[in-house]
Amino acid sequence: MCEGDNSAQFTWTTLFSNETDVTCADCEKKFELITGDTCPKCSRPQSDATVCDDCKKWEMDEQYKGTLHRNISVYAYNDFMKEVLAQYKFRGDVALVKVFQKKWTAAFQHHFPEKDLLLVPIPLGKDRLYERGFNQTLALTEMLPGQFADILTKNETVKQSKKSRHERLRTENSFEVKQPPPEKRIVLIDDIYTTGTTIRMAAKRLKEAGATEISSFTLVRS
After folding, report:
1. DSSP labels for 144-208?
2. Which Pfam families does its entry note (predicted)?
3. What are phi and psi of 186, to 5 degrees?
4. What is the C-alpha to C-alpha distance for residues 184 and 151, in angstroms, rounded to an integer?
5. Closest C-alpha to 25, from 40, 51, 3, 7
């Protein structure tokens, strides 16, 4: 990520190696872990641990009320993370996923210690998957312990990040469930939680298919 002598060289070899310390100390310090008080529903950093206004609005929405139990995010979306995430997602640098492995896995085991969970990665549409060459969320999911199932599909839509909150809420749900989920607590996996629309749309489809409790685990909270 940096040009210093101690920076890690990301190759297919390092991707599949057992080495977990793949960042230099300087780069590691630039990542900002979410600590302190946060919204208990979405992990938004704030001055207290009460439910934030956005989550209150979601719970007043009859369409999405109760769809998401909680979201846990690991990192804040600072400038350094923004650049690294762009390199990972949009420039095809899949090996960068190893940068997050240690803290990503530790945070998951801390917040989701239960064994009887089903991890469900948020899918990409076919066109976007072709553009990127890989699903960044699936790569994150594969680093976590436990069972996972690729049971969601997604139709192509305009990127959620390009829409306003109002436009996102009006967007037709682009997710479909390929097969009924088993009777397990589900944890949706995604790279970033912004407004919560993507996660809740996926959760809504899973609820309609019979899922009971759905949480989400995301790398970044913007």
Report:
1. SSSEE---EEE-----GGGS-HHHHHHSPP-EEESSPPPSSEEEEEEEEESSSHHHHHHHHHHHH
2. Pribosyltran (PF00156)
3. -105, 140
4. 14
5. 7
Rounded to an integer, what is the distance from CA 94 to the centroid of its chain? Answer: 15
Q: Give the model confidence (pLDDT) of 146-199 as tens digits.
A: 999 999 999 866 565 555 655 655 667 999 999 999 999 999 999 999 999 999
Spell out the domains of the chain, with CATH numbers in brackets: 12-221 (3.40.50)
Q: What is the pTM of this model?
A: 0.86
Q: What b/e string do you get for 39-48 counting C-beta neighbours within 10 Å, with b at 16 or more?
A: bebbbbeeee
Residue 192, beta-bridge partner list:
220
